[in-house]
Each structure stands twice: as structure tokens, then as C-alpha cells.
Description:
This protein is α+β, with helices and mostly antiparallel strands and 458 residues long. Helices cover 55% and strands 18% of the residues. The chain has helices at residues 2-12, 14-68, 78-86, 122-129, 176-270, 278-303, 314-325, 348-368, 399-403, 420-431; strands at residues 95-102, 107-111, 134-138, 150-158, 165-174, 311-313, 335-341, 345-347, 374-382, 385-392, 434-441, 444-452. A hairpin with a 4-residue loop joins strand 1 (95-102) and strand 2 (107-111).
Amino acid sequence: MPNQNLLRSQSKEPSIAYFISLGFVLAIFGGIVWISSSQLKSALRKSAIQRYVDIWTPVTQFHIEQGRNDELFGGLDFEDFIVFSLIEAQEIEGSLGLQVFGAQGEFLNGIPISIDERNLYLSEIDQMRSGEAWGVFYPRGIWNQESAPELELNIPINDRDGEEIVALARHHLEGQAILDEFKEIDREVANQAGWAFIGGASLVFTVFLWLGWRLRRARNAIAERANRLAQANAELALVAKTSAVGAVASHLIHGLKNPLAGVSEHLSTAGTSRAGDEDWEYARQAANRMQSMINEVVDVLRNEELDHLDTLSGVEIKTYLNNKYLSLIKGKQIDLGIRAIGDLVMSARDANIAKLIVSNLLDNAIDAVSPGGEIEVRIEAADGQAVFSVIDTGPGFSITARENLFAAIQSAKTSGAGIGLAISHQLARHLGAVLELVRTSSSGSEVRLSMPLPQSFR
């Protein structure tokens, strides 16, 4: 039991690691969702800006072609020609201004008059020479209205043959519309990311619950098997010890039987001349008890060799226990009742081992019950089993005794070895029987031996 309690306490420890792992996985999943949603928002914003670029590029090229074909612009300088060609485009709603840059990135002209006249940066020159139009969004504007959002569209202009880039037209547009579009994009992406996280987290949580349940089952199975293995090892150790001691005990019983019989006979015959001597009477009773115990063991050893058709009935077992214990409890003021219920018949071999077990249970009960207490033994056949119940009104088993009920421990009795119940449990296992503590409290205990009967005895 201590090992089992230790395993149970250890089995609770992984729960902390389990929840930490779950939180760690959810954090990683949330980070992946956040990064993915951020990348999606960035891609959608670029796509929205590119849509404006794609709209204004043909508009710009159309006005340039119109200016080239207009005789009024024939005498203008190149930069003036570009500006005047694109002035009409400035009438489009939302247009803030126009800058025109030469092939080397130098500022050529622009409208309105207050427009910034700085040249292009080197990175912008390289981008212009790639021939691809691009756009840039400024949340707070760059030169017209510092607090208003602004969209900047950069469109390279080719010569008439379309082989060489000769200028760059930079349109400045109001950015509120695209800012609203960005907000809508952000809101939709956030909603989608939220639902994705909730769905994914629910799936992860469900999978973790399932895995945790499987893990707990496996851990409990391992703990149970380990506990059973520990019990089996303890039982095997006890069997090995009792087997080794059994050979010695058989030799001792063989050597003691005849001398003890002689001592008992001498005490019985000589006792008539020493009537009233309490020490002599006590010695005679002790010798008789030892003689009875040796006869019990001899019966068991003998019946191991006999056929199972040699039988004992429940009444015969009752008579045996009466003869053994009614004289033993004289003077102890204990009420002992032994009842045989029904027609129980069992093999002599099994019955003799059962007598040893019940005798040990009765010895324990007699030691536990105070003067004026009661002990009841029930012998009955029920549901194809021989059932022996020992019920007493003693103080019950302590918590420590219950936890180590069938383990070989130091006895609390000064004359006990602490292995009585352990040996009884092994004997029960040898018969395929079950020895169990049915109930125990401060008002008494009940210990039951349930032994399956062969079909021929049912």
C-alpha cells in the first residue's frame, strides 16, 4: 500500500507538466496565427495599393500620348510638356499634386507651386529604372497636409518608342479611402484569425484532452501493474521463505510429535495427584494446545497425499472448532458462537487448510476482544463457495493494520511474529480462495474466507 500511494502521488505530478505543455502549444499556435495574419494583412494592403497603381498607370500613359499628339505642346520643354499633359489628370477627385522627375532622378517640375522639389533617392531611381510602377501609403501625409493620410503613386514614363525610361510621374492622392479600406482589411483578417485561433485551440485542447486521458490510463495501468508486481514479489518472497521453513517445520513436527504426546500423557496422568495446582494445569493445557496444533499440521500434510473424495462437512468443522476453542476461552468471559449453515461438504485437504486459516482468524479475534465481548463464526455454502466468516466485537483494525493487512510486519502483540495473516493469505491463495476484511470499525470487524467448491461438492 505505501508503494501504491507513492505511485498515485507521483502520477499527479505530470498534470502540471501537462497543462504547461498545453499552454506552450497554444502560445506557439497563437504566434503562428498572429504572424500569418500579419503577413496576410501586409499582402492585402500591397494588393490594394497596387490596384490604384494599375488604375493610374494607363491614365498617365493616355494623357502623355494625348500631349504628344497635341500641336499646342509641341514647342514646350520636356518637363513642361509632361506637366501640362498630366494637368488634366489632376482634375480627378482626390488628386493632391504632381511631381515630374528626369531619367537621373532630378526634379523637373510639379504642381501646385508649393510642392516639394527634392530629387529622388538612389533606391527610388533604381526602382524607376526597373520599369515597374509602385505605390507608397503615408498614414500622416508627407508634404500637403501633415495629419491627413496620403497615397503616392510612382509611374515610369517611356519615350515614344517605348525602349527607354525618360521620366517618372509621381501622383499624390488623398489616402482616406485606402486607409478605410486598410481598416476593413484589418478587421476582416482579425476576425478570421480569431476564429482560426478559437477553432485551432479547440482542436488542440480536444486532442490534448484525449492524449491526456490515454496517458493517464497508460500511467494508471503501469502503476497498477507495478503495484501488482511489487505485491507478487513480496508474495513470492514469502512463499520462498515459507517453503524453506516448511521443510524445517515438517522435520520439527516429526521430531516433536511423539515426545509431545508423551509429555501430554504424563501431565494428564500425573495431574490427578496435583489437583488444584494452577501451574500444573496451565502446563497441561499448553501441552494439549501444542498437540492439537501439531495434529492439525499433520492432517494437512497427510491430506496433501490423499484423494479429494475424503471429505469433511461444515458440521464436522464446527465440532472441531468447538472442541478446540470452547475450553481455550474458559475464564476469559468471551461469548463464542460457531454456526454451520446449510449442507457444506468439502474435500478433507481443503477443509484442513481452511481450519488452519479460520483458527488463525479466531486466535486474532480472541486476542482483540475484551472480557464480555462476542465472537461469531459462520460456516456456510453459498453460490458455489464455502464461506467462513469470523465476526468479533473488538476495537477493529487500525489504519496502519488495514494498509498492511496481509503483509508480513512486526506484530503489535508481544508474543506475535506478525506473519499470521500473511501466511493465512498465502494459504488462501494456494486454495484459489479469497481472504478479505469485509468491515472494521471501533465496534468490531468481520473477516471472510471464500473458497470455491469443485462441481462435485456443490
